[in-house]
Automatic annotation (TrEMBL):
Pfam families: SnoaL_2. This is SnoaL-like domain-containing protein. InterPro entries: NTF2-like_dom_sf, SnoaL-like. SUPFAM superfamilies: NTF2-like. Residues 12-114 form the SnoaL-like domain. It comes from Embleya scabrispora.
Amino acid sequence: MSDATANKRLIEQFWQDLYARDFAKVAACFAADGHYTDVAAPGPGATGPVAIEARLRLGLDMLAGYIHHHKSTVAEGDLVVTEHAEEWHWETGEQVVLPFVSVHEFRDGLIVRWHDYWDFGTLMNAAPQWWLEHVAQGYAQGA
């Protein structure tokens, strides 16, 4: 079992790196078999640091603004759970505040599971059509 305090510190840095859009640093937090999925979204998610970085870039690179609103983080053993919201802004003026619960599971100091729970309808009702098409095309290509 991992040290919950150390895992919580790693996740705090993880969020800082993610919202700075340093996707390579975020991907480096994952084990080779680490898996990331948006539970609400279609598809199997991404496995391994390279695929995880590509999936993050697909959805987030084209945002004009990306702001994190942290609410709480709890850690126990190998699990860290964060309640937060992400504020997304597109260059065409659309925006959304998307509430999340994120679950991270660790093994030997690396993330082996990241499951994001959020409301699909909230995002679909706010996102511009061009972005939805971009993400759908990326998913079809395996990102």
